[in-house]
Amino acid sequence: MERLQVCILFVVILHSMTVEFACKGQNVATSCSASDLEVLLDFKNGLNDPENRLSSWKGRDCCKWRGIGCSNATGSVIKIDLHNPFPVDSADVTRYGFWNLSGEIRPSLVKIQSLRYLDLSLNTFGGIPIPRFVGSLKNLEYLNLSRAGFFGTLPPTLGNLTNLQYLDVSSEFSALTVESFHWVTALVSSKYIGMNQVDLSMVGLSWLEMLNQLPHLKELHLSSCGLSGSISYLTPVNFTSLAVIDLSFNSFNSTFPSWLVNISSLEYIDLSNSGFRGRIPLGISEIPRLRYLNLALNKNLSANCLELFRGSWKQIEVLDLGSNKLHGKLPRSIGNMTYLTHFDLFLNNIEGGIPATIGGLCNLINFDLTGNNLTGGLPEQLQGMEKCDSKKPLPSLMYLKLSSNGLVGKIPGWLGQLKNLQQLGLASNFFEGPIPASFGKLQNLTNLRLSGNQLNGTLPESTLSEVHFKNLRKVKILDLSSNSLTLNVNPNWIPPFQIRNLDMGSCHLGPSFPNWLKSQKELKFLDISNANIDLSSNLFNGTIPLTSVSIELLDLSNNMFQGLIPQNISKVMPDLVFLSLSSNDISGEIPAIIGKMTLVQVIDLSNNKLTGSIPSSIGECSYLKALDLGNNTLSGSFPSSLGQLIQLQSLHLNDNKFSGGVPISLKNLSSLETLDLGNNKLSGKFPSWISDGFQNLRILSLRSNSFSGELPLGMSKLSSLQVLDLAENNLTGAIPTSIGDLNAIVQEKKSDESLVVNLKNQFQKYTKTLSLLTSIDLSRNNLNGAFPVELTNLHGLIVLNLSGNQISGQIPENISSLHQLASLDLSSNILSGVIPSSMGSMSFLSYINFSNNNLSGMVPYKGQMTTFTVSAFEGNPHLCGAPLVVQCQNGNSDNRTVLENDNSDEFPDKWFYFESHGDEHISVS
After folding, report:
1. Would you state the pLDDT for residue 376?
2. Position 698 pLDDT exceeds 50
3. CATH superfamily for domain 677-688+702-925
4. CA separation (Å) from 126 to 96, 102, 168, 249?
5. What share of the chain is helix, strand, coil (3-state, %, to 5)?
6. Considering the chain, what percentage of its residues have pLDDT values greater than 70?
7. Residues whose CB is less than 8 angstroms from the CB of residue 657 and which lie 6 or more positions away in sequence, other chains included
8. pTM surpassing 0.85?
9. What is the DSSP string of 154-223?
């Protein structure tokens, strides 16, 4: 596309010009006129030029000034080119800003009526509007004001420029807007129109018909313009010269514009991420000059691959159809697309295997089939390589991405012959066997992802052997996690590479920490490849190793590390954002220096043997989002400095020996979603302020402490709450009726505790597996009063446990409205009355316990209730009927015969935990 634009640019500049430019360094026949000189000096005075770019603008001959072009015949100024030569996306980005011009565009410029070329692009004109008087420069043929910091409404006076062939007013962040598009129809000479990121949302639905009146148009760039509506039909099509059309990143709710297939001059089509739907017309493959087609990210475009890819595709070089609804199998005929360089079909529904004929795609650089339904194995041998000069398969391939499919079998050895390969993604498939030894020949490989397969074997025979690694000097990202691979290298081995992203989780690297990692001085996050060190779920032992590197993500969880947390951890790893040492054998106190980890967002030290108190310096970790110190032996009171962690979303301090009350400073944690203080020695009044400022709180667990007092009346303010666990405390009073207004449970939402960690503009999800799904547990307290009928409003409730209290009254008749309920425990209360007959319809109910109450009448033994045994009802002397041994007299539901084995003084100790690991299941502990 760039070559095409350059060609058009030269055509625009040279076409119809009968004079020549005279620029600096040329011998000109005539000096510039005094009037032009005066205008240019005034123009210069209006500009801010911090880099002194206009230093040559002195003397009497302006035709020799930098950026000025004159006519040899008349000396008149016909060209002003002051574009920024160092835009922000150029190689030398350090110059951007210094070379920016700013200030104002003086209206005297309109006096140079001979001007035919004006380029002020890529500067920073500080939010000023494009001057209306630009439309008075009627001889302009080339106007480029793109990305120059202009703001406001595009002046319709630009329609006066009837000689204009090239117009680019592309903006940034929709800083420019267009209220009416009618003026565009007057640009009858236009060959190039660029308005990327100009807000066109107000131009109505006729913009396409207006542009269709420009028969000479060759390129149309309207990306990210806020366009909407349907453009499915256009009759007649006057774009007979159109070569480039870019309508990407708009919001068309439209079927594919099939009229495009009738424009034989098209070379470049970009309709990506623009809301198109329906079938991709097969005729698009027959456009004879088409080199570039991008329909990615529309999500609802469909086509059968066998039909679509059997077309001609004579000149196609870039074909991106990712993230749509393509289906069917890839035909062997894709091997005929010999000009193809980029073939992107990620996130579709493509089935079957990969044809062996891809071996003839000699120019292919990028091949991406990530996230499809591919099955079978990769071809053992490729076909068509005789078409390539090298006679080798895929000689140009640099990026091969086949992750997240259903591919099986062994990884073929020909992958090791792809000498230019830089990235190889085969993760999340079903490959088995060893990694081919030929991978050691991939000298340009920088990124290797094989995680989530069934690979096995000892790595000295494959990729990670010392012998093979000597050629992999460029490897920066290595992900072999979730396989059954074993690393067995010399303890003194020093790799030839400096790895930046290493994930070998669940590989066999132990028992001792691999010394070769200490030589890796670049272990840090550098790019979008999710760089981290993740050595979890191994069998390491010894002390925690630290090396002098700028690591951002360190995960050593699920090992057997011993000893203390290093006192110098914040000095050695100053850039640390994610720290997980959970599930090891780490002892001692949490060092106070942890407060110096000023960038850290996640600290997980759970499931260790830590002692002592939480250092008050923790409050200095101002970016902290998740703190998990659960399942240790920590003690003392909570430091009030915890209240300084205002970004905290997840706080787990459960299963320790903390004492005292909950500091009121925690009230400042308004972003908190999870608060787990269960199984400690906390005491004092229930913190009533919890119901006030925690609208995001989804999980609240204070179980197994010694809190007293009543539940606050404003419980309904916890509108996001899905898990409430206050069991085994000393709470008193009635259950507030407002508990029936917990909106997140009423709406049947499911909880998932997770947060996003920002690693230098890369986002990684941090998730903790929940021990409870949507539930309320108030058991083993001293609560009294009637069973609140409002609880039956909580239609999403899965677990309800009110056992071991003094709750009275009857079970509400409409309790069956809790149709998601799986576990109900009302045992050891003083409930009376009958068991509602409607409970037989509660099809999800798998556990109930009504024992040790004063319930009476006949058990409604029907439907789901027939799955429960005697133990669920015993200890109610006035209940009768199956499954109890006591029969109701004459069918009378008021039978008062006492059960022989009344265990009313025995407290049941049952609780249900729900785990989310794929399929949900219930287990009893």
Report:
1. 93
2. yes
3. Ribonuclease Inhibitor (3.80.10.10)
4. 15, 7, 18, 26
5. 20, 25, 55
6. 84
7. 633, 634, 635, 680, 681
8. no
9. PPGGGGG-TT--EEE---STT-EE-S--GGGGG-TT-SEEE-TT-B-TTS-S-HHHHHTT-TT--EEE-T
